[in-house]
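Hi support team,

I've been running sequence recovery on a batch of backbones for a student project. Most finish fine, but this one hangs at about 90% for roughly twenty minutes before it completes. I'm not sure whether the input is malformed or the queue is just slow. I've pasted the structure tokens below so you can try to reproduce it. Let me know if you need the job ID as well.

Thanks,
M.K.
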């Protein structure tokens, strides 16, 4: 049954954002035009993006914040559950929280895109990425780092902070690589689709920190 015009109109911004995120993840923000986003989203009027978001940069900023906010909310909720149960009890458990909350629990049909999007964006335009966040939506991440410091009180602070930086770069790169592989529907990806893979990623990250 055709949707009512008002319903279709209200769903359009969300659909445009999902399609834009996919294209940006695949091609980078400089490799995608407003016209291409509108066409891929099935918008006959190529001015739809401007109508809903104002500009391509404004759309990019919304995508950054949408994903960061969702991850931060999942991360804080997971930490709250862990703390309520007496944890986290190990660095591995903290890494499991970081990894699991970085994965979209309800991705679009074509798969997850956010990690690829932000990794590419930070390489090409880190200033835009940081400005869009404006120091927000990372409280869960900072809480995870504080838990690691609590669990490793004997580690020299400069060495531990360095390893946490290494871990931060590694988690983004690994999960972006996972998204890229799983987006390839031409073949199977048994390693990345395996039920234990994310747990193994968490243990690898813990190894970086614990040395």
């Amino acid at each position: 049954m055709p949707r009512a015009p008002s319903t279709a109109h209200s769903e359009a911004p969300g659909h445009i954002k999902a399609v834009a995120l996919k294209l940006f993840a695949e091609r980078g923000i400089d490799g995608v035009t407003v016209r291409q986003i509108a066409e891929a989203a099935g918008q006959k009027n190529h001015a739809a993006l401007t109508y809903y978001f104002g500009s391509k940069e404004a759309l990019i900023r919304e995508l950054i914040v949408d994903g960061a906010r969702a991850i931060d909310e999942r991360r804080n909720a997971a930490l709250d559950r862990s703390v309520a149960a007496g944890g986290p009890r190990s660095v591995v458990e903290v890494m499991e929280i970081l990894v699991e909350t970085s994965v979209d629990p309800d991705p679009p049909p074509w798969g997850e895109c956010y990690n690829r999007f932000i990794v590419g964006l930070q390489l090409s335009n880190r200033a835009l990425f940081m400005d869009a966040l404006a120091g927000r939506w990372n409280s869960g991440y900072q809480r995870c780092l504080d838990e690691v410091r609590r669990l490793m009180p004997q580690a020299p602070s400069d060495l531990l902070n360095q390893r946490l930086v290494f871990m931060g770069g590694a988690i983004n790169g690994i999960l972006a690589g996972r998204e890229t592989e799983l987006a390839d529907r031409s073949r199977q990806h048994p390693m990345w689709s395996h039920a234990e893979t994310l747990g193994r990623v968490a243990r690898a990250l813990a190894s970086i920190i614990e040395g």
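--
Follow-up from support: It reproduced on our side and the slowdown came from queue contention, not your input. The chain has ten helices and no strands. No action needed from you.
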